[in-house]
Amino acid sequence: SAEKYVKEYRSEEKNLIRLRRQAKQAGNFFVEPEAKVAFVVRIRGINGVSPQIRKALQLLRLRQLHNGVFVKLNSASINMLRIVEPYVAYGYPNLKTIKELIYKRGYGKVDKQRIPLSDNAIIEKALGKFNIISVEDLIHEIYTVGPHFKEANNFLWPFKLSSPRHGFEIKRLGFAQGGDWGNRQEKVNELVQRMI
Under a CB-based contact definition with an 8 Å cutoff, are residues 36 and 72 in contact? Predict the structure, then answer.
């Protein structure tokens, strides 16, 4: 239920704050928990894409400009992100970003059709057997990278986002060089907010 999830998110956040404070008081560095999920947005078009990169983008379901997907972070997916890095911007989404994406831009795949998530019944029909019966369940599964993350993520159609308000910096440069592509960690939330 939604209330149970809210409690879980809050206690997790409080726990992190407590650990950060303890580390600060003791004069230690706090190692943030490693992100389990990334949000990946394609920021470059199809011209001059090598076959290897094109195939990797297809596997990530990023066939169009400004398409976005959630990716579970493991060694295989991190290697794939390295291959496509100059064509995508990615980072670690927070709960607010995941919620807004699913509520505002979320579509499900039902009989190979792109169906808006206007009703929990749509989710229950597709994912009920995994105990995911509402939008909140879907958000929880993605945010916590639950046991049925793969099925939940495959049910979600790739997000079709707008070009960001106030535009990109320089698409041909990496984020670390003041451009756009590559890993921007928590800063991806600000980019997605401008694209929803």
Answer: yes
